[in-house]
Amino acid sequence: MSAAKVVNVENQEVGEITLDPNVFDVEIKEYLLHDMVRFQLAGRRAGNACTKTRIEVKGGGKKPWKQKGTGRARSGSRTSPLWRGGGVVFGPKPRDYSFKLNKKVRRQALAVALSAKKVADNLMVLNDFPMEDLKTKSFLRVMKNLNVDNGLIVISEQNENLHKSARNVKDFKVLSVGGLNVYDILLHEKLVLLKPAVSGIEQRVLS
After folding, report:
1. In the chain, domain spans
2. What are the beta bridge partners of residue 19?
C-alpha cells in the first residue's frame, strides 16, 4: 500500500492517507488512455450534418418538359442531383459516432490516469474544502495556497457553493466521484482529491 500526505486549504500537512495500489500504482499503459479519450470524444460528437436526397427536396412532382421533341435532354424531375437545387447523392446524414468499450477497460484506463498523475507528482489530497459562501475569490485564494494554476477538484458529495464558485474560472473544474473521467484528468495539470472522495474512487474502480 502506498501513502500520500493530506493537506488543508492553507497547504499545511495535516495527516496521511493510504492509497490502494490497484488504483493509484498501476502500470502506465498509454494505449488505454488513448482508447478511452477516443471513446469519450466520439460519444460527444453531435453527428448533425444532414443533406437532402432527391426524395426529400421540395417539388419535383411534375415532369419539367415532355420526353421528346424539345431538343433538350430528357428529364423526369427537378429534384434530380444533376440539377441546381436538386438532391444530394450519398450525402451525409445524422449518425452516431460512439463505439463500445468494455467496462473493464474503462476502469483500467481510469486507474492508469490516476496513477499517471501520482507518478508525475500532480496528485494531492485535500482534507476539506469548506465554502460557506458562493465566492470565486475564495476559491482562487485556496488554489493559490495550493500552488494550483490548472486543476481538477474531485468531491465526494454535492457542494453547490464550490461548483458555482469554480465554474466560471478558466482551467478549473469540479467533479463528483461519479463524474470523474479520464479525459478531464488528462486535460488538467493537477488533480486535487478531497479526502472523503478517495474511498469512493477506489470503490468505483475496483467494483
Report:
1. 2-46+100-206, 51-91
2. 2
Q: What is the pTM of this model?
A: 0.83
For residue 1, the model assigns a pLDDT of: 62
What is the mean predicted confidence (pLDDT) over 7-29?
Answer: 94
* Architecture (CATH level 2) of domain 2-46+100-206: 3-Layer(aba) Sandwich (3.40)
* pLDDT at position 201 over 90: yes
What is the rounded distance in angstroms from the CA atom of residue 111 to the CA atom of residue 24? Answer: 6
* The pLDDT of residue 197: 95
d(CA 205, CA 207): 6
Which amino acid, 140?
L
